[in-house]
Amino acid sequence: MEETYYMQWLQSIHHLSGKSARKVLELYPDPGELLRDAREHWEQMFSAGQGKILWERIQETRSLQDMQEQYEKLMEKGIRFVHERQKEYPARLKMIPDAPLGLYYKGKLPGAEGLTVAMIGARDCSEYGSYVARELGKYLGQRGITVISGMARGIDGISQGAVLEAGGESYAVLGCGVDICYPSSNRNIYDILVERGGVLSTYPPGTKPLGSNFPPRNRIVSGLADALVVVEARLKSGTLSTVDMALEQGREVYVVPGRVTDRLSDGCNRLLRQGAGVFLDPESFVEELEESCFLKRISPIKEREKGISMERSPGEEGRGMNREKLPELSAELLELWQALEYEPRSVADIREHVKNTLSLQQCSTGLMQLVLLGHARQVFSGYFSKV
């Protein structure tokens, strides 16, 4: 336990990287020796800034007992800490460059067995992106495939919420302390994650969600997964930095293609041009991952449960995202549904894509029927999108 107290104390020092922390451990395996050393020595070993931070932290900690008390206060709050020398430390993280010395967490830690997928994307996502995130999250959750994300607004939170609703397991890596729910709008997801999955962070409890915390956080999101799926991304976004980290870590990257006129798909389409894997539908995506040679070390995924597969409707082959089979609809309503898109469209625009001669009033009435049946959404007055 003395080693754990020491490791947690080092991890709690802000701006001290995993590499620097290991350097301290190598030079000072005994925390007593470290606490007795002189300030000049620290400033020579590290940059002046890091040496000063470390020295100030040493001045606040007089003994191993202080480290123990700090650790025990975390335990009282339901916060756990795991370090790289413990068997519980996530095996996938040990393989990435500059792996964190340790992790704080509430709930539990991701296991080493089975397939794990990271899902990321735009915070201000479109209806199309929201739909893809929900459907993929649901599909993965139903099959017991773990999903890692950042619990951020938009794609992250939507996908993780869908996983949990499907009875699956998910883990969120935060850019703040695990005792802080950020964003607060995802409080319900946070609470369920703590109960059925986990929330993790390299930052000590109480750390606020500063912008500078998120890029380092992203390497943990990709590092905990076997593959990364990008749902929507602009050309300049934090999502693309996560892709760079995933590639550096040797992870597979899949991208959901989008329309060339949609700025939310610019980043995705650029990644596709650069050779990223194309995400077309959940089933083929999972099958490709199962067959990939880099996943041979993972235990085979249990045989898919019957009765929950997402079927293609006639004429849907090759169009990408599958959808669940619709209940019987009249020919008129089915044609209206097929004329819808995942982006909002006006009634007049929808009417132009319907073969039958329908008046605007008939189209409006039919669309409202689809809304009531749960197959369409009225985004705002006169505009509808597919569900």
Structural commentary:
The protein is an alpha/beta fold and 387 residues long. It has 3 domains: 2-76; 116-295, Rossmann fold (3-Layer(aba) Sandwich), CATH 3.40.50.450; 331-386, Arc Repressor Mutant, subunit A, CATH 1.10.10. The chain is built from 16 helices and 12 strands. The protein has helices at residues 2-11, 18-27, 31-36, 39-45, 48-60, 64-76, 127-142, 155-165, 187-196, 214-223, 238-248, 266-273, 282-291, 331-339, 347-352, 360-373; strands at 80-83, 102-107, 116-120, 146-149, 170-173, 198-201, 227-230, 252-255, 277-278, 345-346, 376-380, 383-386. Strands 1-2-6-5-4-3-7-8-9 form a 9-stranded mixed sheet, sandwiched between helices. Strand 11 and strand 12 form a beta hairpin. Helix 1 (2-11) crosses helix 6. The longest helix has 16 residues, at 127-142. The N and C termini lie far apart (53 Å). 39% of the residues are buried.
